[in-house]
């Protein structure tokens, strides 16, 4: 299955050029770490990209929380991505009808499609959300992760929702690069990736805000993650660079253990 195959082999089986590129970056950098850069100023966002960039395969933004957004910020992010060899994912969680998401993806303040290699999508509207996003892309060097299951307490992503969402995923292998979930996904295509947030070495949860955490080892070994998303565990650490190095080492060791067992 996907879980026992090395990323190098899976890169050749990707049906999407972005998935292939991401898998190759993971192999080259020995990193299956995605940092969730949840900071509210452009200077903090760029500082993070420049400092933790060498240790991540993927840099995840919520671009709408940046108070001083500008086109220059995007140019700096793209330069950092190029320099440190990582991809950009905007965690927009598109969740509307196809026509609306095509506009949200390519227009407005952020013009996400023009810079983000990847985006996240809620499949709740049905397949049209994917065809809508696809319609906004000229060539297909863009892709999306479908959010099939959330990390938060009391989430509404039931087993039947997860399996219906997986069907949508399988229908668009040219644009979908994988799923975001918490339990080993039934991805039968080794060219697709599982992205898993809710990862921390120190915390179980964030109190009343609903986040639930698992250890790096558990998300890779037990929960089927290919790439783990770490936000506050790195961003709010006393030394974010040292934290990024530690998460990267632990996550990669867990992956190596998984493929060798
Ligand atoms: P944290 O600081 O490690 O808790 O940040 C987790 C990030 O992952 C944050 O940007 C969330 O928006 C994102 N996330 C999540 O936590 N859980 C989910 O199910 C999904 C995204 Br989908």
UniProtKB/TrEMBL annotation:
UniProt KW Transferase keyword: yes
Record keywords, A-Z: Decarboxylase, Glycosyltransferase, Lyase, Multifunctional enzyme, Pyrimidine biosynthesis, Transferase
Active site annotation, chain numbering: 91 (for ompdecase activity), 93 (for ompdecase activity), 96 (for ompdecase activity)
GO molecular function: orotate phosphoribosyltransferase activity; orotidine-5'-phosphate decarboxylase activity
Orotidine 5'-phosphate decarboxylase domain sequence ranges: 32-247
Any one of the GO BP annotations: 'de novo' pyrimidine nucleobase biosynthetic process
Pathway listed: Pyrimidine metabolism; UMP biosynthesis via de novo pathway; UMP from orotate: step 2/2; Pyrimidine metabolism; UMP biosynthesis via de novo pathway; UMP from orotate: step 1/2
Domain of life: Eukaryota
Enzyme Commission no: 2.4.2.10, 4.1.1.23
Positions of substrate binding: 38, 60, 151, 211, 231-232
Family: In the C-terminal section; belongs to the OMP decarboxylase family.
Protein name: Uridine 5'-monophosphate synthase
Organism expressing this protein natively: Zootermopsis nevadensis (Dampwood termite)
Whole sequence portion shown: 224 to 484 of 488
């Amino acid at each position: 299955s996907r879980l026992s195959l090395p990323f190098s082999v899976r890169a050749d089986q990707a049906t999407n050029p972005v998935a292939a590129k991401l898998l190759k970056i993971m192999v080259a950098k020995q990193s299956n770490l995605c940092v969730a850069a949840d900071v509210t100023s452009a200077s903090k966002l760029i500082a993070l990209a420049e400092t933790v960039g060498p240790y991540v395969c993927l840099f995840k933004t919520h671009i709408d929380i940046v108070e001083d957004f500008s086109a220059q910020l995007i140019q700096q992010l793209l330069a950092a991505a190029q320099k440190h060899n990582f991809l950009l994912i905007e965690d927009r969680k598109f969740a509307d009808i196809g026509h609306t998401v095509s506009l949200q993806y390519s227009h407005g303040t952020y013009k996400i499609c023009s810079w983000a290699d990847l985006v996240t999508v809620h499949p709740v509207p049905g397949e049209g959300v994917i065809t809508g996003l696809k319609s906004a892309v000229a060539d297909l060097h863009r892709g999306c992760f479908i959010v099939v299951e959330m990390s938060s307490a009391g989430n509404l992503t039931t087993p039947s929702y997860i399996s219906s969402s997986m069907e949508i995923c399988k229908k668009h292998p040219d644009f979908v690069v994988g799923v975001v979930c918490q339990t080993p996904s039934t991805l039968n295509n080794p060219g697709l990736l599982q992205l898993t947030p809710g990862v921390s070495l120190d915390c179980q949860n964030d109190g009343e805000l609903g986040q639930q955490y698992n250890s790096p080892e558990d998300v890779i070994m037990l929960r089927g993650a290919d790439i783990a998303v770490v936000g506050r565990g790195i961003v709010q650490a006393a030394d974010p660079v040292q934290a990024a190095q530690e998460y990267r080492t632990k996550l990669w060791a867990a992956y190596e253990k998984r493929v060798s067992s």
